[in-house]
Design brief:
The chain is an all-alpha fold and 299 residues long. Helices cover 66% and strands 0% of the residues. Helix 1 (13-34) runs antiparallel to helix 4 (50-75) and helix 1 packs antiparallel against helix 6. It folds into two domains: 1-110, no CATH class; 145-299, no CATH class.
């Protein structure tokens, strides 16, 4: 595909790619059901239910067929629609409609395939339409020259969530676990939800600011952070292009106030969801003004 060929609504290509995307998610999702100990994250298994994932699997598979048919009707070509249908067909043969969730045994290691699929689905639902109908750069296609590179970074950072999590939490545990933080945690848990959430945003933002500043002002660290700034085509995937050293250092710094203050599970989960969406938002190719939510958008 030409790097300059922006997708046009009504030609059938968009629906074809949506079909391929959804059917691929469905196919990969089957492996999460079959090998949950190795391919799902314990933290996220506590948030979603197996019943909801069974329904989501069926809906995604059926929707992929719908967009495959729509692609054939609009484009009068079967290539994209057939490919999406074929992948969805394989998913059905492997159990997309019959697979059932089960209790999961504790595992010493795992990949975050469930987190990757759910986050990828959520981000595409939110940002693909925004970039398609309200682009800031209306000449930029979704399939620009860098999208594969950004997708690889996205996949790796999600699949290896256990490794990133262990390494980024170690400094906070090593340097602050001896302090006896029970009273601080009790005080924070007694705060109203909104106040605690604001405190989480405020403290982590301060730590992240200084981590970011250090990467910009130290030559030996800039060589790692420059990977993030090497993107030429800004879109919702661009924020994923981050060197692993950058990820480790920044997340480790940000985790310090979360660990010391010991926020509740509810506050922590809302914080994580907001930060995940915000990190994508500030890099997205959309002209919509989100006010203070985009105050640090990279131009």
């Amino acid at each position: 595909m030409s790097a300059n060929a922006r997708l046009v609504v009504g030609e059938g290509k968009i629906s074809g790619y949506i079909s391929i995307f959804l059917s691929t998610l469905s196919l990969l999702g089957i492996f999460c059901f079959r090998y949950p100990e190795q391919l799902t994250t314990p933290e996220f298994r506590n948030i979603y239910t197996k019943e909801s994932m069974e329904v989501l699997m069926a809906v995604v598979t059926i929707t992929s067929f719908f967009f495959a048919l729509l692609s054939i009707i609009l484009s009068k070509k079967i290539k994209l629609g057939f490919l999406g249908s074929a992948i969805a067909g394989i998913a059905i043969l492997l159990g997309a409609f019959t697979v059932q969730g089960r209790s999961v045994d504790k595992s010493d290691w795992y990949f975050g395939l469930d987190w990757m699929l759910l986050d990828l689905l959520l981000m595409t639902i939110i940002f693909i339409p925004l970039e398609l109908f309200f682009p800031k750069n209306n000449k930029q296609t979704k399939f620009h020259e860098e999208w594969r590179t950004d997708l690889v970074y996205f996949v790796i950072s999600h699949l290896f969530i256990q490794i990133f999590g262990i390494i980024t939490q170690k400094p906070a545990i090593l340097f602050f676990s001896w302090m006896g933080l029970a009273k601080i945690h009790l005080w924070v848990h007694g705060l109203p939800f909104i106040v605690a959430l604001f405190l989480a945003f405020l403290t982590t933002d301060i730590f992240q600011y200084w981590a970011h500043r250090i990467f910009h002002t130290r030559v030996y660290l800039w060589r790692f952070h420059s990977v993030h700034h090497s993107t030429k085509s800004m879109d919702w995937l661009a924020g994923s292009r981050t060197h692993f050293i950058d990820i480790f250092f920044t997340r480790a710094m940000t985790f310090i106030p979360l660990y010391v203050l010991g926020f509740s599970t509810a506050v922590f989960n809302v914080y994580i969801i907001f930060i995940a969406i915000h990190a994508v938002l500030i890099h997205s190719n959309t002209r919509i003004n989100f006010g203070f939510l985009r105050f640090n958008r990279q131009k």
